[in-house]
Amino acid sequence: MSFTAIDCQSFAGGFALGVVKAGFELIAKREQPGGFGVPAMEANRHLLGDKWQVEACPAGNWTPMPADLVFGNPPCSGFSNRSSMIRGRTEDGSIGKIQFKGVNSVANECMWDLVEFAAKCDPKIVIFESVQGAYRKGIGLMQDLRQDLESRTGQKWTLYHVLHNVADLGGAQVRPRYFWVASRIPFGVDVPEAQDPIVVSERIKDLESAPLGSIDGHTFELSTQAKRIQELASKAEWLPDETSGHAYERAIREGVRLENWDEPLVSDKGTTQFAPRRLNYDRPSRVLAGDAPQKVVHPTLPRTVTAREIARLSGFPDDWTCKPYLEKRSNSYWWGKGICVEAGQWIAKAAHDAIAGRPQAYSGTRIGDNEFLIDAQVGKKQKDEGLF
Question: Which of 96, 149, 251, 308 is the least crowded, having the fewest Cβ atoms under 10 Å away?
Fold first, then answer.
């Protein structure tokens, strides 16, 4: 039996592809004005199916449709470590730094939009993905969203907080994340089996000898920042897992002459978690955020990673075309705003099995009225101990 799903703000397709791979038929896609990431999905209808239509407009204008599942990954900026402050209009009308984090962040409006839309589609399950801070720091908001869903539908919904790491689900990124799952039917997940992590070399080492441009997406834009990275990587020793700042400091100590690093405010001289960093062939990748094409350095070659390498490290197959991501630089941010395919398929398979009447085994720990915490790591330990 075929179950239907609506994509609501899942951007550039990682979640959608996972949902389709889990057995759902995609019937619609809804995005905010501008249609962030839509061209990437349009170009990959050969993998996503061709029965879905797009509406990219204000949320109040989205056309509801009956569906078994509504899913998405609305912006996580309100809880992301990357977005504590942004420039914008302050309360007195001037332009300056404004707070962008927390439960009252304007970015969280997209979560409310998703829930309001889902309530009109009569699904059995609603899922959205975010950073784990949305649960750890914003659990009150997560509960309010469930309450809003109940108020709009007049039905009881059980809320599942699902904590997971993509590296535990067969993915190649160490990417701890959170799924908000509201369900009208019994729900559980399959706890991931113990396995060796997927390391970077397993996904992209074969591309090391492939000429740039010889494979779809196996190219990158040589921006000013990428030129700095390329110069540093070609002239100085740059160790795996090391930031550009550490490699730069070594280069200066050793008297290496760098031509593109003279400006005193070049941020690539930093050593924080957000600085450009070299991948390690022997480990899973770091989180590939929207700036990955500019800041994630190939494990051995003197360049940043290509679009195809990012795709592979995010779980996309080689027949997922990368052309739309390369048409302009801003499109490259679609990679980081979506989710890894493996995580999308894992949670979607749990939803598919629940709708089919055979919920997966682990439903987590009760933490409130019709509210459960599913921590995949805790579940794995309990499974090993024979507790379920």
Answer: 96
- Same structural domain for residues 297 and 371? no
d(Cα 164, Cα 174) in Å, to the nearest integer? 10
* Position 51, amino acid: K
E strand intervals along 95-175: 95-99, 125-131, 158-165
Nearest 5°: the CA angle 103, 123, 58 is: 55
Q: Centre a 10 Å sphere on the Cβ of residue 31 and count the other Cβ atoms it contains.
A: 22
DSSP letters of 359-378? --SB--EEEETTEEEEEHHH
Please enumerate in sequence order all residues whose Cβ is within 8 A of that of 172, keeping only pairs 6 or more positions apart, or say none: 166, 198, 199, 200, 202, 203, 284, 285, 312, 313, 314, 315
Count structural domains, the chain: 2
Same domain, 102 and 23: yes
Domain boundary among 319, 337, 355: 337
pLDDT in tens, 287-317: 998 889 989 999 999 999 999 999 999 999 9
Quick: pLDDT tens for 247-295. Answer: 999 999 999 999 999 887 688 999 988 899 999 999 999 999 888 998 9
User: Which tokens belong to 210?
Assistant: 């492939």
pTM of the model: 0.92
d(CA 58, CA 39): 18
Element (H, E) at 251: helix 244-253
DSSP H or E stretch at residue 71: strand 69-72
Give the domain extent around 278: 200-337
